[in-house]
Amino acid sequence: MTHKCKVLIAIPVYNGGDLWASSAASIKACLEFFSCYDFEICVIDSGSTDNSVSVSRSLTSNVVEINNNDFNHGATRNMFLSLNPDFEFVIFLTQDSILDSKESLVEILKPFSNKDVSIVFGRQMPHSNATPLAIHSRFFNYGDKSYIRRMSDKYVYGMKTVFCSNSFSAFRVSVFSELNGFPSNTILSEDMYLASKILLNGGALAYSSNALVKHSHNYTLFQEFSRYFDIGVFHAQEPWIRQSFGGASGEGVKYALSEIKFLYDNCKILIPRSIVLSMLKFVGFKLGLKYKLIPKGLIKKISMHKGFWK
Question: Is this prediction's pTM over 0.70?
Answer without folding.
Answer: yes
